[in-house]
Design a protein that fits this description.
Blueprint: H1 8-19, H2 22-30, H3 36-46, H4 56-76, H5 86-97, H6 104-125
Length: 128
């Protein structure tokens, strides 16, 4: 890993932001509550910052823009189940600062919070 690459913790948090809602949404799609294409498109949009793994400045901009779009979309399309992506907004914000090379303690807290957020989101939305 080059020094200017995105740290794997940040990459992992963005991956969690895109993947966490998919489990509960798959259950909703299976039950016929929502349509599958908007779910896939929204998850793909949440994963856009992963394309900038070699450019930290582009990664930061992508996280900011995508998180604002997801925040707006999770409210506007709440009736079709896109509220499941609201925790992804929080995970993207955590990913923006989770670089242990710059802030070792804060990065650990941010990654831990992102993991707990994923676990709680899946447990709550699947009714566990």
């Amino acid at each position: 890993m080059r020094r200017d690459d995105i740290h794997p913790w940040r990459f992992g948090l963005v991956l969690l932001a895109a993947m966490t809602p998919l489990g509960p949404l798959a259950v909703w799609v299976d039950r016929g509550y929502i349509s599958f294409p908007p779910v896939l498109v929204t998850a793909a949009v949440a994963a856009v910052p992963l394309l900038f793994h070699a450019r930290p400045s582009g990664f930061g901009w992508a996280v900011g823009i995508v998180s604002l779009l997801l925040l707006w979309w999770s409210f506007v399309a709440a009736m079709v189940g896109m509220f499941f992506f609201f925790p992804s907004v929080l995970q993207l914000w955590l990913a923006s600062g989770a670089d242990p090379r710059r802030r070792p303690v804060a990065a650990k807290v941010m990654v831990g919070a992102g993991l707990v957020l994923s676990a709680l989101t899946v447990a709550h939305l699947l009714g566990a």
